[in-house]
Amino acid sequence: MMLPKRKILKTRGIPNYRNYMVKIVSKKTTSIDDQLQTIANKKIARTRRQRGYNWEDTLVKRFNATEGWKAFRLGSPSVALPDILAVSTNANTIFTIEAKSGTGTTLYVPYDQIIRCLKWINTFELYKTRKMILAFKFISKKRIGTGKYEHRQLREFYKTWDETNTITDCVCTYEGKTYALVNGKRQKLELENYQMPFKSKHLIL
């Protein structure tokens, strides 16, 4: 007696279940990682904005505590305004100020922010002294990795922009040296230190 032949199921086109589940888990893991990275990036950006605001606020308070001076925060980076406008009628002086602070070993000023500051001081022709000031603050913790810091000396530098310079991106180092960035290449740019009308124990000349 002949036994009936067993039907053999064709597996062509049927996905391997284990590989299928691995792909799903991998996609979910990648998605979660992306979400966590996005959250982390937003937190970093928020911290940087807050750090910048605090530095600007500190400078405004220092000016306003100095006899004969008044200072104002003018707006966010999205607005074509300097960070700070400081004036002294008694000294017949006006400053536009770009304030930069951070945990790195360099602080960067884009060329367009220099342009907007120069436009503002050149608008107020009645003032005898008109200067654009770059105010750099290297805070007392140095970033050495993601979420990792080490202590260092807090340093402040105040540099005045010479209008005879070609307008470029500008960088200040923790040592107080400045240089230009042109098409990603480092070029010589020496900016003079400026003695502010207020005192700071963190000022490095």
Topology of helices and strands:
Elements: H1 17-64, E1 70-73, E2 84-88, E3 93-102, E4 106-109, H2 111-123, E5 129-138, E6 141-145, E7 148-151, E8 155-160, E9 169-173, E10 178-182, E11 185-188, E12 192-193
Parallel strand pairs: 3-5
Antiparallel strand pairs: 1-2, 2-3, 4-9, 5-8, 6-7, 8-12, 9-10, 10-11
**Compute the gyration radius: what is it?**
28 Å
The fraction of residues in strands falls at: 25-35%
> What would you call the structural class?
alpha+beta
Q: Which stretches are low in confidence, meaning pLDDT under 50 for 5 or more residues running?
A: none
By DSSP (H or I, 4+ residues per run), the number of helices equals: 2
Helix content: 25-40%
Order of helices and strands: HEEEEHEEEEEEEE
Number of strands: 12
Span of the ends, CA to CA: 107 Å
- What is the molecular shape? elongated
Task: Give a written overview of the molecule.
- By secondary structure, this protein is an alpha+beta fold.
- 30% of the residues lie in helices and 31% in strands.
- The chain is built from two helices and twelve strands.
- It has helices at residues 17-64, 111-123, and strands at residues 70-73, 84-88, 93-102, 106-109, 129-138, 141-145, 148-151, 155-160, 169-173, 178-182, 185-188, 192-193.
- Strand 2 and strand 3 form a beta hairpin.
- It is elongated and about 80 Å long.
- The N and C termini lie far apart (107 Å).
